[in-house]
Amino acid sequence: MAEPRPAVTTLQFNTTVRFGRGARSLLPGELRALGIGRPLVVTDRGVIAAGVLALALGDLRGDVFNATPANPTEDSTALALAQYREADADGIIGIGGGAALDLAKAVAVMAGSPPGHEGTLWEYCNRHAAPRPIQSPPPLILLPTTAGSGSEVGRSAVIIFRNGIKAGIGCPRIVSLAICDPDLTLTLPPGMTAATGMDALSHCVETFCSPTINPPVDAIVLDGLARLSAAITLATANGSDHAARWDMMMGALEGAIGFQKGMGAVHSLSHALGPLGFHHGTLNAVLLPPVMAANQDVLGDKLGRLRTAMRLPIDADIPEAFAALNASLGLPSGLGAMGFDRSMIPAIALAAMDDNAHRTNPQPLGPLDYEAILNHAL
Ligand SMILES: [Fe+2]
């Protein structure tokens, strides 16, 4: 192994997870164990309309906040926090995709402080050298209903703040328990299965390629990549494929365990593009080929390990393989097909430079490099 060996590296594995088909049935007992008697359920209308909230909750009843937007915002956090206090809730259950889970985390970040003393959500953002400390958050249980963000085990909540910036709130110990039941994803439509699955796959790729030294995480995210790259086509084609859904959910979880290594330019760019209203996973799918093309010269033997995980031929072109996967899943061919206006390229390139994921891209990038990637991604 020719890796440099730093004097100190940090390995962090935070969240207890109950994982498996039918795991949702554990929720009532876990609520009792955590002392939650009056939960606020944070979800969205799509999860409710699809019948997934009812499937997840069974006979449980709780006050429901259903107005999670496609990308969680500071304003939606304030609304949910007001409902939490109005209901005199004593815990939070997040049920949904990454948006609902991150919103549930953001509510927990604020809810531990007395009303009027919680500050603004922006003060907790990881863009600050010293974010505001989180005070006594209430117990929080997360149940993902997509296999994508991995927020249930991720170290942060990604929010669009009132200043227009999309960035994270570091809250690695805020989740009391994740309950991962692949059956909650069985009705996820093909387009969302593909788009959220490519988000998870991009987490595995970007965290593996990050220069941060963390061999246990490398093994975990390569396992995730192997599961996701094998299962994403199956789960997209046949949503009732239980084995593929299990692998997708496990791969999403594994990718998010990798966040502690930091990500790269796929996510620095998708965070910069997110406030324009584009879907996060779809952005990552179309950004993966050009970002890997920009990075591959410095990845050394990691390229071979990526090919092995994805069961590609030994001489396969990895950016082309990701582009072919996107096409086979019916995802857009580029940012242009998503409605992105090329006049935004310079501003997005500069915004990506400020994102935390920029710092752990394997190849150091400047604004002109980002502009070249965005042009390639059109
Ligand atoms: Fe992501």
SS class = alpha/beta
H/E element order: EHEHHEHEHEEEEHHHHHHHHH
Which architecture of the largest domain would the CATH scheme give at its second level?
A: Up-down Bundle
Total helices: the number is: 14
Q: How many domains, in number, for the residues?
A: 2
Q: CATH superfamily membership of the largest domain, which one?
A: Dehydroquinate synthase-like - alpha domain
Overall average residue pLDDT: 96
Q: Provide the list of bound ligands, each named once.
A: fe (ii) ion
Please report the first level of CATH classification, the CATH class of the largest domain. Mainly Alpha
- Which topology of the largest domain does CATH recognise? Dehydroquinate synthase-like, alpha domain
Structure, described:
A hairpin with a 5-residue loop joins strand 6 and strand 7. The strands form two sheets. The protein has a six-stranded parallel β-sheet with strand order 1-8-5-4-2-3, with helices on both faces. Strands 6-7 form a two-stranded antiparallel ribbon. Helix 6 packs antiparallel against helix 7 and helix 6 packs parallel to helix 8. It folds into two domains: 169 residues, Rossmann fold; 188 residues, Up-down Bundle (Dehydroquinate synthase-like, alpha domain), CATH 1.20.1090. It is globular, with a radius of gyration of 20 Å. The two termini are 37 Å apart. It is built from 14 helices and eight strands. The model has no long low-confidence stretch (mean pLDDT 96). The longest helix has 23 residues. By secondary structure, it is α/β, with parallel strands linked by helices. The structure holds fe (ii) ion.
